[in-house]
Design goal:
The chain is α/β, with parallel strands linked by helices. The chain is about 55% helix and about 15% strand. Strands 3-2-1-4-5-6-7-8 form an eight-stranded mixed β-sheet, sandwiched between helices. Strand 7 (about 130-135), helix 6 (about 140-150) and strand 8 form a beta-alpha-beta unit. The longest helix has 23 residues, at about 250-270.
Length: about 270
Amino acid sequence: MAKTVHTVAVVGAGKIGELVLSGLLRSGWPVDRLLATARRPSRAEDLTARYGVRVVDNLTAVAEAEVLAVAVKPQDAAALLDDIGPKVPADKLVISLCAGLPTTFFARRLSEGTPVVRVMTNTPALVDQAMTAISAGAHATGEHLALAEEMFSPLGATVRVPESQQDAVTALSGSGPAYFYLLVEAMIDAGILLGLPRQVAHELIVQTAIGSAVMLRDSGEHPVKLREAVTSPAGTTISAIRELEKHGVRAALLAALEAARDRARELATQAD
């Protein structure tokens, strides 16, 4: 961790904001260097009880924190920035966790020259296995990107991408865990159909998913080669793959990710 530990305020500590708070604490970020804001008093009490962080109002967060991690819903971002934007000094770093919203959305509502870094992470941050993509806004420097990486690397892997690719990132990895959960759910149902008890089917598929993911990560092999290694001529696997292709699984995934990307773009338009 850097010698200078910045005070970070998570503005709008909902599901994603809580992921950031808990991850920073697990990584050793001092609790007295963390603030949070929450709309409901019951949520504020819950965060304080669970993590020991001080929950403050938005303007106090702006005054005391050096880094503002904005984690409100995209449709709530304009109202928030209309409220606090004029009061955010240009030397604060603003990190956006708002899906679909470009850094220009923030720049129009903040003081001229305020650095903004756009971040898309995902829910495996809960187990320190997130995939986080980081992009610089117009006034963000390499130092600002490094600080964002310092915050999010304890949650898993990080990658820097041009902001023009962030909607694709949202579709692929931001929403990605849901696709895998849906696939696992369907495979468990298939196991039950084939006569296995639910718990046995669950254990079989979950461990198979974990093992396959580790092989993908650690072997360095292209997924096609790994799939071919399982696919014997005239065997069971190729029979299953034929049915998947017949039912258009690959085309369905392509269409689904395009739909997710398009929805991210719509969110930006609606927020404006």
